[in-house]
Amino acid sequence: MSGDPRLSELTAKVATVSDIFAARCDIRRHEDWYLLKLQEELGELTAEALRASGRARRRDESAEDQRLALEDEAADLFAMLLLFCRHHDIDIAQALERKWFKYLPHTPLPAASVDER
Question: Taking the mean position of all CA atoms in its chain, how far away is CA 61?
């Protein structure tokens, strides 16, 4: 789990929703379920991005509904990534610091303040 309180809070909320959904739909989350769900959600995000760019068949939706669909699929993918990290005990904030942010002048991510909640 992340040492970043914002990510920890998001992950806890996502996990609660996922647990509710799994119980209601009798979903068994086996070892590779998290990875397979990431792939599924990436496919759905890809489909919405292609629709939004005019490179796939569009639904009979307003531009606002198309945008909301794209945002919703991005949220699904992000939520599944949080669950994947939680399941595999990956501190994603620490991994970002190590893998990506090493190229920046050293400035650790700010902790969430009480005002941001």
Answer: 25
What is the spatial distance between Cα 85 and Cα 39, in angstroms, rounded to a whole number? 14
Distance set, CA 19 to CA 22, 29, 81, 115 (Å): 5, 10, 15, 29
Closest CA to 6 of 92, 97, 81: 92
Q: What are phi and psi of 101, to 5 degrees?
A: -80, -5
Looking at the structure, give the CATH architecture of the domain made up of residues 5-95.
Orthogonal Bundle (1.10)
* Residue given tokens 């005002």 in the structure block: 115
Task: Write the single-letter amino acid at 80.
Answer: M
- How far, CA to CA in Å, does 115 sit from each of 12, 101, 110? 20, 25, 13
- Joined tokens for residue 58: 């569009």
- The phi and psi torsions of 32 (rounded to 5 degrees) equal -95, 5
Q: Whole-prediction pTM value?
A: 0.83
pLDDT tens-digit readout, 11-40: 999 999 999 999 999 999 999 999 999 999
The number of angstroms, rounded, from the C-alpha of 87 to the middle of its chain's C-alpha atoms is 14
Encoding tokens for residue 114?
């009480």
